[in-house]
UniProtKB/TrEMBL annotation:
One of its GO terms (cellular component) is membrane. One of its GO terms (molecular function) is G protein-coupled receptor activity. This is 5-hydroxytryptamine receptor-like. The chain crosses the membrane at residues 33-55, 67-92, 104-125, 146-168, 188-213, 250-274, 286-305. SUPFAM superfamilies: Family A G protein-coupled receptor-like (SSF81321). Pfam families: 7tm_1 (PF00001). It is a multi-pass membrane protein. Belongs to the G-protein coupled receptor 1 family. Residues 342-364 are annotated as: Disordered. Residues 352-364 have a biased composition (Polar residues). Residues 46-302 form the G-protein coupled receptors family 1 profile domain. The lineage of its organism: Eukaryota, Metazoa, Chordata, Tunicata, Ascidiacea. The keyword Membrane applies. PROSITE patterns: G_PROTEIN_RECEP_F1_1 (PS00237), G_PROTEIN_RECEP_F1_2 (PS50262). It comes from Phallusia mammillata.
Amino acid sequence: MELNTTSAGQLPNTTTANPDTYAPIYALKILEVVYLSFITVIGTIGNLLVIFSIIYAKRVHKSGNLFIINLAVADLIVTGFYLPTVIANVIAGGNALPNAACQVAAYLITVSCVCSVSNLTCIAINRYLVIVHPCWYEAHYTKRKTFLAVLLVWIWSNFLTSPTLFGWSGLGYDPKMVGCAWDDQAAISYNATFMTLAVFAPLITICICYGRLYRCVRNRGRWIRSFAVSPSNVLRQAKERRSLQKEINLLKTLATALAFFILCWMPYAFSVTFDPKGIPHKSKQIVAWFGLSNSAVNFIVYGVMNTTYRKGYKNLLRLLCCCKKPTLSRLPSVFRHYNESRNNNEHASPHRANNSLPVGESNSNIHQYKGVS
């Protein structure tokens, strides 16, 4: 893709013209830099917060959280690496990178975008199996297979992007979006193939999974309400309600993250699929930057809608600001009781400590904390 030296990002020679004529252009440039800088800072800090809050809470090995971390890493490539190059292009009024560096940036942004939607797909499948097929999930969704799935996400993302290196489409500077990207005007066939496999098919899969999850959760709620009134059933019903409410809250969080992804990226996806050459300069810039802004949204959704992530953010920030480890009382009650019981058993009999469970708790109580939390 060749650099367009007369793009709107560049300013004409103003040595002989009235400076007031170009004041709106300078103002727009400043506004663009401020907006991109805000997304860069907020997105980078937020995605690092997601990653390290999960690591600090020692919830990495809960299989669903690996996909959350992987999604945050993909978003971090956008906010921490790619957006600063776009800011440099806006300031320079054109491509500020050497050709090789521009191609690297274009390749990485394409891979990271594919990786984002692939991770959303893996999260939807993960929740579907946890809730609808829990026995199969426990038997087959091991840590090793989860790590393999994360690796396959990156392999798949590179596979879909690699044709741009071998002549089917290309990589370079796009003056319309003021950034380095894959050449969406070089091969319409690649656009259609790429968007179908990287965006539309995964989104259909996600919608099917969440549709079945909604139906399963609704039926489970009816089953809980059907319990006969008795002392034993009241306790069981309360326990089932708490577990169901936790699943509902998590599904709402993930569905909201998906909705923001669709809202941010669908305009760009449709524009490059059906009319990549006819889209106006400013329109493409808006839809492309709107899509890139999605990388700064997920951590806000997690924190606002899910108390587990919100507590994780607070604990991590408290540690960084005060250098003080959160007290045991700030942990979820089931883990607090488990730790207290384990400490008591260690004093009583060191050989029995590893096999102890909280008083009044069973494996079914601990089971509800598996998966994404």
